[in-house]
Amino acid sequence: ISDSSSVGHTLCELGELYFELNDFITCKNYFNESLSISVDNTDEINESRTYMGLGRLYTKFLDIDKANSYLEKATVLAEKRSSYKELGRIYKLQYESYMAVGKALNAKKYLNKHHDCLNMLIHIEEENCLKTFTSIQFDVEKEVENSLHLDKDTFLINTKVA
């Protein structure tokens, strides 16, 4: 396969698959391979996804320090792209990792961040809908104006001919 980004993405997906199959050694191997390819190709999207997968893996074994080190790397990449959707996922994973070890106050911090990201996504969606509606309304008003102008011209021509 010549598309390295697709290879990195597929390896990350395989890591997630083996996580679900509880084959954690194979899971980690696929994540590490995905990470290597993603870093080599400066593919920050797959790199971030892989860090998230590794964070989830280490949370499973209650190694919260290692999990959060990967999730922090994912956070840096997601913030760089202003990806609120990805940040929301990362914060939810951090919430889950702290809950897994009974650190409710730390978990609450990340649940609040997750909530803030969801609100930001809702705000962006509402803003985009408003822009789309305004644009459509402007186009309709322009069409009506052009139609009225044509009707006026037709009326004037008919009046002059008659």
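^ that was protein a. below is b, sequence first then the tokens
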Amino acid sequence: MRKLLFGLLGLVAARGLAIADVTPSRTPVVDSSLTKLVERELIDAAAAERDAGTRVAYYASVTTIAERDLDTARLNVDTTRRQWDAAVTAHDADLASVWAHRHADAVAEEREASGRLLLNRTERDLARAEFQRCADDLHRIATKVARVQRATRG
């Protein structure tokens, strides 16, 4: 657990605090309940940030897939429309009927893909906002840990 804590305290340094304030050699030997509570808070905040980051990555990937699905659906709509028009121009009613049905299916798929894309973009944006909130919490708690450790040292 202390190894994890010191790894997390590396985040403190990355956020602009002096690493000398939180190095293991300067950690007090006396473990007060306040120090343990604040360290637990830091570990929990880091886990929340990691989970939020995972959600951001997941929804970014799913959104990319949904964007490609929508592009494919639009291509299918265009293709079926051209084929339908060609069948009408050729005065082939049976073929025109087939392409009209395919075009209707392609339009429905396009609407479905558009809805999925909208949903996934919303989820991605919510995940990004949650990640930012977790990152801000982590920074605030890391600052608090550094303060508590300085206070217990001196």
